[in-house]
């Protein structure tokens, strides 16, 4: 392992006893376990064997350390002015488990203060959600179904009289929490003037409220690429802005949909980063928890991309696909601290 990778992975500033890094080849699952104290243990595990569960450790899988090393060097050489971060929201920036319970998604937390309409939206979920994951429905047909689902849901939110206050209350009542280290990551990126685009097929206004309530501060470099609501002067939802972003088209709308973070209702912080400046940032750090999240950088003609995958659950079945698809895979609902370390080492003077 290169000095560069060693400096990134050797310590993670969280209250965890160790970081284990598994380096694997394409044919066999060769694991190297590296403890924070600096001791290496080499060991071999057969492909398909279950990965040891985290016992107070952060488990990291890096399938191609040479490639990762090259990418880190390329990003270091280009400098922070060339980098942007593209992140999925649910189960990527937020935790999969919160106090032993499955964390709520930004989509699922909304209670519009009208049980009849909450139930109608829930019924739509039960109807369309299985269709979204059906292996037999052709993609064109599925895309139409998703448009239908999102359209009906948005119409119900308007018809049911959603208010901005209901969003605030829903977020306050929800089981949702950011991964440890997310605020530090945002701060670090803000210091370096690096934009963070958060992509979601959910609702921008809810994500912003989650950021406000759970991080207790705003970041000028954070942009939400998601469905945005329009409220009247009394705080009632009256419309949605622009094209609907659903689960099957969220990647197509990357840059043109990037809107600045609302400072408060009806008030928008000036666009610190416009689409043009984002397009000139040709290096990408991509964070996701789903293989489909890799498509979030499709709208960009990027030069170097480091992809980080959070594999939160069903690890035994999904690890092979994740480790082949992402440069770095964090297992078991890991904290964001490893990514903080990666970013902080990208331009530190002692990590060459
Ligand atoms: Mg997600």
UniProtKB/TrEMBL annotation:
Q: Which UniProt keywords apply?
A: Hydrolase, Magnesium, Metal-binding, Nucleotide metabolism, Nucleotide-binding
The kind of enzyme this is, by top-level EC class, is hydrolase
By what name is this protein known?
5'-nucleotidase
Q: Which SUPFAM superfamilies match?
A: HAD-like
Q: Name one GO biological process term.
A: nucleotide metabolic process
Keyword check for Nucleotide-binding, yes or no: yes
Entry's EC annotation: 3.1.3.5
A GO MF label: 5'-nucleotidase activity
What reaction does this catalyse?
a ribonucleoside 5'-phosphate + H2O = a ribonucleoside + phosphate
Protein family according to the UniProt entry: Belongs to the pyrimidine 5'-nucleotidase family.
Source species, domain of life: Eukaryota
Q: A Pfam family matched by this chain, by name?
A: UMPH-1
Question: Which PANTHER family does the record match to this protein?
Answer: 5'-NUCLEOTIDASE, 7-METHYLGUANOSINE PHOSPHATE-SPECIFIC 5'-NUCLEOTIDASE
């Amino acid at each position: 392992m290169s000095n560069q990778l060693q400096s990134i992975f050797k310590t993670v500033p969280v209250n965890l006893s160790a970081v284990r890094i598994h380096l694997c080849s394409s044919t066999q699952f060769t694991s190297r376990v590296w403890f924070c104290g600096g001791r290496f243990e080499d060991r071999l595990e057969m492909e398909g064997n279950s990965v040891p569960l985290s016992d107070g450790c952060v488990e990291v899988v890096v399938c191609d350390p040479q490639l990762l090393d090259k990418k880190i060097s390329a990003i270091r050489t280009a400098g922070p002015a060339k980098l942007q971060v593209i992140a999925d929201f649910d189960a990527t920036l937020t935790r999969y488990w919160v106090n032993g319970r499955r964390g709520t998604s930004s989509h699922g937390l909304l209670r519009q203060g009208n049980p009849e309409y909450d139930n109608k939206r829930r019924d739509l979920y039960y109807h369309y959600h299985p269709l979204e994951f059906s292996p037999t429905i052709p993609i064109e047909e599925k895309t139409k179904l998703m448009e239908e689902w999102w359209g009906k849901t948005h119409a119900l939110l308007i018809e049911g009289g959603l208010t901005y206050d209901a969003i605030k209350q829903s977020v306050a009542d929800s089981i949702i929490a950011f991964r440890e280290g997310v605020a530090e990551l945002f701060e670090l990126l803000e210091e370096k003037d690096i934009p963070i685009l958060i992509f979601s097929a959910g609702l921008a206004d809810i994500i912003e409220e989650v950021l406000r309530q759970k991080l207790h501060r705003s970041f000028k470099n954070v942009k939400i690429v998601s469905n945005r609501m329009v409220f009247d002067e009394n705080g009632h939802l009256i419309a949605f802005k622009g094209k609907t972003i659903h689960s099957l088209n969220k990647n197509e709308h990357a840059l043109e949909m990037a809107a600045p973070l609302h400072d408060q209702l009806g008030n928008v912080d000036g666009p610190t980063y416009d689409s043009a400046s984002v397009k000139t940032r040709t290096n990408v750090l991509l964070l996701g928890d789903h293989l489909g999240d890799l498509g979030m950088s499709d709208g960009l003609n990027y030069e170097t991309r480091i992809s980080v995958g959070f594999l939160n659950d069903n690890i035994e079945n999904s690890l092979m696909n994740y480790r082949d698809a992402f440069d770095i895979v964090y297992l078991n609902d890991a904290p964001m601290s490893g990514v903080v370390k990666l970013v902080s080492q990208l331009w530190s003077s002692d990590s060459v």
